[in-house]
TrEMBL record:
Cofactor(s) the protein requires to work: pyridoxal 5'-phosphate
Modified residues (N6-(pyridoxal phosphate)lysine): K235
The keyword Oxidoreductase is assigned to this record: no
InterPro entries named among the record's database cross-references: Cys/Met-Metab_PyrdxlP-dep_enz, Cys_met_metab_PP, PyrdxlP-dep_Trfase, PyrdxlP-dep_Trfase_major, PyrdxlP-dep_Trfase_small
KW Ubl conjugation (keyword) present: no
This protein's GO CC annotations: cytoplasm
Comp. bias (Polar residues): 1-11
Native organism: Cryomyces minteri
Protein name per its UniProtKB record: Cystathionine gamma-synthase
Family: Belongs to the trans-sulfuration enzymes family.
Extent of the signal sequence: none
Keyword terms of this UniProt record: Pyridoxal phosphate
SUPFAM superfamilies: PLP-dependent transferases (SSF53383)
Amino acid sequence: MSAHNGTSGPNDESRPESFHPKPSMHSPATLAVHADDDLNRSADVAPALHVSTTFRYARDPNNLKPSSDWDIPTYDPSVPSSMGDAHIYSRLTAPSTTRLESLLTQLVRAPCLTYSSGLAAFHALIVQTAPKVVAINAGYHGCHGVLAIHTKLSGLKVVDLLDPASWDAAGLGAGDVVHVETPLNPTGEARNIQHFAELAHARGAWLTVDATLGPPGLQDPFRHGADFVMHSGTKYVGGHSDMLCGILATRNKKAYWGLYTERVFLGSVMGSLEGWLGVRSVRTLELRVRRQSDNATALVRWLDGLLQSKEDSEEARIVMKTVQRVQHASLQEDEMSWLAQQMPDGYGPVFAISMQTPDMARRFPSKLALFHHATSLGGVESLIEWRRMSDATVDGSLLRVSVGVEAWEDLRDDFMSGFRALAAEADGAGEGETVQAGREKISAGKAQEAESLRAIPPVEEEVTSQWNSNLNF
């Protein structure tokens, strides 16, 4: 990849090697239903499921081209009608996945490729960019696990995203990667894409954005300087907790075709069933995500309002007794100058609650009726997770909340019922189990947390720490 200077990255749309998405006369909600109409090869209104792994060559010998004569890059992935149905083998393309990619290309506003999972997409991104240095901080720990593998294989250096001095010390420059996840997993807090784009592009580096928690309909990272955008499509693109999917998008032609070719040999394509499920899910993406984001923001404002309340109400007393803090992009009031531009239509459906003690965090999910205690996020159902179940790097008091499409008032009442039950247990357990005693135990409470983690099935001793660090969803 060539070096580049200034604030425009290698994806600068003025460059001839970039795809130029044409503005659509239709809204994203309409595109989600109709952007793949040109790929429909039957009279079925609902997309057909194609499960074949291989496809017949043309019957006319004059139309047979040996692989050395293929000129795949002549098709424009930003124009669905140009993609046709000339499928050969499903590790290259297949009807269902191609149809999903055509929909996503219109919604993300850049050519998209799908993968077997979000981590497969991130791995493909690192393979394509081949950086010597990656700047990253916090966020989804699975990405850190992928980088650890590349560090072992290639000597890749990983530096702190929030410490630009460490970038320069490591020699971060042309062809390297600045990776920003926004909103962040598991807190739902946002980061300024344009700020990091300027820092990255000034050094000739790529800006890659993991926008899983801010799917199409909530933010457009390309508008703020991203060169690559990735999603774990398992989450909001899938939206029903029934498919695995990864997504990579870029407007850079050379990078796109590099990703396309490398995917063939990495073998990390998603299955046809998952592609078909993805098409089904994208139809309602905007409806779901807007509702989920609105629900989450309403819950966060209600809960934070009780924590900040000056009134001596029963609800406020109970919440203060059980909850330390709430984290979500909607609470970043000091950063609204950029955040309102970056996320004008909602702040995301994920937020974090820190309970007064790790024991309260472990017990709270079992007090709820409407929230499933499970990992992952993005489905129509509301989930809550004591995050230590799958990520040993987070504070033991943290709960991740993924809000669904239910009525937010019902979710609020379910929370309140759970807080009441916890508070009643604390009040009835005696002084040794009060919140104050729990706070005093935190410094010595590592043993208690370790005890809870022993519930995880044992693995070989030498890989236990790696297992606990990377079992992350």
